[in-house]
Amino acid sequence: LRIVVLVSGNGSNLEALIAGCATGEIPACIVAVISNRPDAHALERAARHGIPAVALDHRGFPTRAAFDQALRDSIDAHAPDLVVLAGFMRILTPGFVAHYAGRMLNIHPSLLPAYPGLHTHARALADGAAQHGASIHFVTSELDGGPVVLQGEVPVAADDDPARLAARVQRIEHLIYPRAVAWYAAGRLRLSNGHATLDGAAI
Ligand code: GRF
């Protein structure tokens, strides 16, 4: 199974996915990594592992639709079975999302449906939340709103600041993303009629 990973930044989740493919936990191969930011550290990580690393700078396109068309062409040149968003920080147009319906996953740093959007850790702290975490979900046209596949919870400590809490969430991200991608690669995870299923049962 062929995976294209989209990134914008550090790429620690990419690294966890690469490791999962290398150990065989994920029965698949990452065939390309594409970043909308040319300076993303994730591109260096990909190159270090011999994975084609492509920079597609969104600032070079006149409209969001033009960027999304170029991104789609770049992805489809690698003929992926699955597109994985790993810290990809661009909102995607409905047409783009529809093209990859049921074959695009995202990771979001909150226990969805709580805290879609940005600044999730600060918002959880401001609310005095006792639990926080990360969610893997199928991507739909609703921002951070697609069917949830898997979540990882972490406790919030009394003396947490957003950076400390983010670090704790990231450790759980690196466990749950390879697991969810492995399910997909093994044919166990599907999106059917708008619902995520694992081994045929609703999640
Ligand atoms: C992760 O926390 C992810 O949930 C969020 O962006 C971060 C990406 O981190 N969407 P990295 O680039 O994988 O290290």
TrEMBL record:
Keywords, alphabetical: Purine biosynthesis, Transferase
Residue ranges of the Formyl transferase N-terminal domain? Answer: 2-181
Active site (record annotation): 108
Gene3D superfamilies associated with the record: Formyl transferase, N-terminal domain (3.40.50.170)
| Biological processes annotated in GO | 'de novo' IMP biosynthetic process
Domain of life, per lineage: Bacteria
The record places the site described as Raises pKa of active site His at 144
> What GO CC annotations are associated with the protein?
cytosol
Q: What is its EC number?
A: 2.1.2.2
The GO molecular function terms of this record are:
phosphoribosylglycinamide formyltransferase activity
> What are the binding positions for N(1)-(5-phospho-beta-D-ribosyl)glycinamide in this chain?
11-13
The pathway this protein participates in, as annotated, is: Purine metabolism; IMP biosynthesis via de novo pathway; N(2)-formyl-N(1)-(5-phospho-D-ribosyl)glycinamide from N(1)-(5-phospho-D-ribosyl)glycinamide (10-formyl THF route): step 1/1
Q: Cross-referenced CDD domains, in alphabetical order?
A: FMT_core_GART
The record, for HAMAP family, names: PurN
Q: Which NCBIfam families match?
A: PurN
Of which family is this protein a member?
Belongs to the GART family.
Under the heading PANTHER family, the entry gives: PHOSPHORIBOSYLGLYCINAMIDE FORMYLTRANSFERASE
Put simply, this protein is called Phosphoribosylglycinamide formyltransferase
Quick one: which gene encodes this?
purN
